[in-house]
Design brief:
With 241 residues, the protein is mainly α. The protein has two domains: 44 residues, no CATH class; 178 residues, Four Helix Bundle (Hemerythrin (Met), subunit A). 52% of the residues lie in helices and 7% in strands. The strands form two sheets. The chain has a two-stranded antiparallel ribbon. The chain has a two-stranded antiparallel ribbon with strand order 3-4. Strand 3 and strand 4 form a beta hairpin. It is globular and about 70 Å long. The relative contact order is 0.12.
Amino acid sequence: MSITLEPDADGTTLRLVHDGLTAEQAAAHAEGWNHYLDRLIAETSSPAGAGPDEWSAAPDSIDHISSAEASLAVLLGVLRKLTPEDREKATPCENFTAHELLEHLAGSLKHIGGALGAEVTDDAGAGPEVRIAGLAQAALEAFSRRGVEGTIDMGFAELPATVVAGIINLELLVHAWDFATATGQELVVSDVVTDHVEALALLTISDQVRASGSFAAAQPVAETASSLERLIAFTGRPVAV
């Protein structure tokens, strides 16, 4: 396959040309380019920009790592909009202000990254998005290299790697909701991701874990609740019913 830029007949417009694609590949490429070019037009023509891109947060192949990467993308979009005025706002994570929750999240990612053997550097003076991106990326890259087989020594206990993967997914996505709720942002995330993280939560948040104080009791949700609302309620956070 090759990609070239060719001028149109009038010589004023360049066309992006893909060669050597099958019909299926050509259709997929056309769908992708049309999607992102439409977003580019919206980004440059609207004062509000293109808004969150739900498609980019819905991996074609969902697993422990890809769901965590998608959750990180959602989280960073929320952290990008935090302002100094948000620092002392209360969050749905009980007894945590936005600043305290950021410190908690940074600490969790440092701990997980260290347990995975990553070289973790915490730039505490960086903005929230940059700081968390660096910590999370180091942990996820280490997890991707290691895989989710066997157990991981977390210092306080030897845990199955799948449980640690569940923890990092919950840290990224649920706290994204916490930050968004505290600051009046809309959290846009694909059901592909929330369904997967909800399944991980069911395996990760046991009665013993709740008894330790890490999570409150699961909260009620309406029968029509979204996948994200079910996940949030299962972690002990109240949602509208």
